[in-house]
Amino acid sequence: MTKPVLLVFDYPGPRREARLADLALQEAGYEVRSLMVPPLPREPSAAAYAGRALEVGGPLTGPVRAVLGYCMAAPLAQEAAARTGAPLLLLFDGEPATPAAVEREYRGLLGSVGAPPALPAWWTGGLVAERSGAFLEHAGRHLTEEIREALAAQEDPDFEEEDAAEALAPLVGSFLDWMAYLVAAHRTDHPSWPGTAVNFLSRSQPEIHSWPGAATTRSVRLDVPREELPAAAPTRSLVLEALETHRRDGAISEAGAR
Q1: pLDDT digit string, tens, across residues 130-155
Q2: Minimal CB count within 10 Å: which of 10, 36, 77, 244?
Q3: Are 250 and 42 in contact (CB under 8 A)?
Q4: Which residues, 6 or more positions from 213, have their beta carbon under 8 angstroms from its beta carbon?
Q5: pLDDT digit string (tens) for 153-190?
Q6: 166 shares a domain with 178
Q7: Does 231 lie in the same domain as 103?
Q8: Is 225 helix (H, G, I), strand (E, B) or coil?
Q9: What CATH number does residue 40 fall under?
Q10: How far is residue 142 from each of residues 116, 178, 220, 257, measured CA to CA in Å?
Q11: Collapsed DSSP state (helix, strand, coil) of residue 64
């Protein structure tokens, strides 16, 4: 007997917040499949990013019960739900990847290596939204230059100018993976599908009353800080309840239609 499948979009990079893996839903009889494993996609839109992640993830072994998305992965999870016909979208502090968020994170990357956190001259809202590889091409060159200059200014003893491009490639690559994820999530059409979006919200997370594209939206507020949301015991209980309730209601609807 095949297990119902849960698809998960949760960025794998370092962060202080708990992860969706902390829900341990496989222990409740689900096949939990993470779709964000290296090498990460660098596709120019949410639809293409989700499609590539599904392709790399391989054939599904059972029906997709739900797609889970953490934070700004929500648009990617929604694309996957629409593509697979999943009836349930479970979001955790789900929110859109706005231009302001993309800008903030880019500045943060620059600041993390001691470079001035100023946007480059080529940066425009149109380029961020453009569904092409142009933004990442510009960002790759800019980040390499800024990191090289920052390391040279710090007189890093391990830094050799002639080997800079090769030495910096892994760091720049990790930065580009993060930006590719954010801009892809920003470039979404919020596809409509006949499903339900349930957004589990931490204590201070703003609520989105009607998730774009969802047939119905429900918010569940928990009295926990953002950092603890996926790992909190009440969260897991409520997620399992949502999965079971939707399964039971769906089975009743199918029986009534026969």
Answers
A1: 999 999 999 999 999 999 998 888 76
A2: 244
A3: no
A4: 78, 82, 190, 191, 192, 193
A5: 876 566 565 556 677 899 999 999 999 999 999 999 99
A6: yes
A7: no
A8: coil
A9: 3.40.50.1820
A10: 12, 15, 41, 58
A11: strand
